[in-house]
Amino acid sequence: MIPLSFAQRRLWFLHGLEGPAYNMPWTLRFRGDLDVDALRAALGDVVARHEALRTVFPERDGEPYQMVLSPDEAKPELEVLHPGEELPQALDLAARYRFDLGGEPLVRAHLFVLGPRDHVLMLLMHHIVCDGWSFAPLSRDLMAAYEAHSLGDRPSFPELPVQYVDYTLWQRDLLGDAGDPESLLSRQTAYWRDRLAGLPEHIPLPADRPRPAVASYDGELVTSRWDGELHEGLTRLARETGTSLFMVLQAGLAALLTRMGSGTDVPVGVPIAGRTDEALDDLVGFFVNTLVLRTDTSGEPTFAELLARVRETALEAYANQDVPFEHLVEVLNPARSAAYHPLFQVLLVVQNSPDDSLRLKDLELSPIVVPTGTARFDLMFSITHSSDPAVPGLTVGVEFSTDLFDRSSVVVLVERLRRLLAGAVADPGRRLGLLPVLDPAERELLLGEWISTGEGAASASPGGSGVTVAGLLCEALSVGGDGPAVVGVGGELSFAELGAA
Are 343 and 378 in contact (CB under 8 A)? Predict the structure, then answer.
């Protein structure tokens, strides 16, 4: 039996808890004369070429293993549908399908017919057989196979040097035995044990509601477009500071979270491709690993100083990237909770757009983002920058937990991140607390209307008697008396008891 890779093992476990949270809908719109039979044949060729796409995960004595189906057994049926004006609802329903990891192929294909020359293809895969970096080889192979079949030929693919099961076995040999102090796994685990010592169980976020005891994994998606001027400015700042666009964006996110009350010890999850051998570059599969990048924003640094901290942390993390996140969680054994993700609750993904792989003769292709209605983390920022230098710009998507956030709050959060980054580009020597976060209307509300209203506020002038926050608090506490002021799992405090404390 072929065991699961480390990443697959954790996802197999999480699937039982979160279900469709780990669906991967890959959706394309075709405008033009689409050859449906050629598309159907091309899908079969791609699934036959990549063993991961025809792998299922049955159990024996409670242990899952990889079983590769034959191309005929795994060939996806292309379901042709006519949704009319209900396309969004149809895509949403298709994306929420719950796979049976052990009992069915983990690839489903739907073709939505909108008109004679207008079609939408959704290829739905479970994350356990595909990751985001797989979309590039997947799209290249699908386009090549479609072109060949539309001309009455069969595609001629270069032979893949390895398949996913080869990677699984190679990964275990590379990492070595956890009990051997000289193994790669042991050495890199020691780095992470030291680096993540004392990590907060979870960071406070500017949520609209208290965190529930058990996460529902329900979520929504907010998207925004940042203009080319900001994109070019961020790229220029990265170049001038010897960093990368990713590092600039990570520093900006850490700075924003600090400004929003998340503290100065900010862990952010970051997925990396995990394709450390070029033999894996053209393979579809689940290779991605997750690093925990811990950013120290204390001491009111300038943005340039924060960037230097982020750069040092990131380079050290990349040098120790082989430890599977799943193994790290087991070794560090953080406090487990059904309410939040271990080690980090905010994820940042930065990637190039795959436009170069989406080209077909006589067809106009455009990707469609389809939310799954789920959220794997409290917040997941996915930032895509155009691969075409002539058309710069950034697309920002934030998947958020509806247990915690309202859509309007996340929209404001994304705009504040944009404003902070624009301020950092304009003056990287500015300290974090002085970078712009509020828009003019918010500043006017805070510094104008709210300060100038209320009976006591008028006396809070530089030369007056002055009203302090402590004074206002004491006054409020004295009015409450023995009534409950704070109620929590440990009991409650009256206003008088809170004042004494």
Answer: no
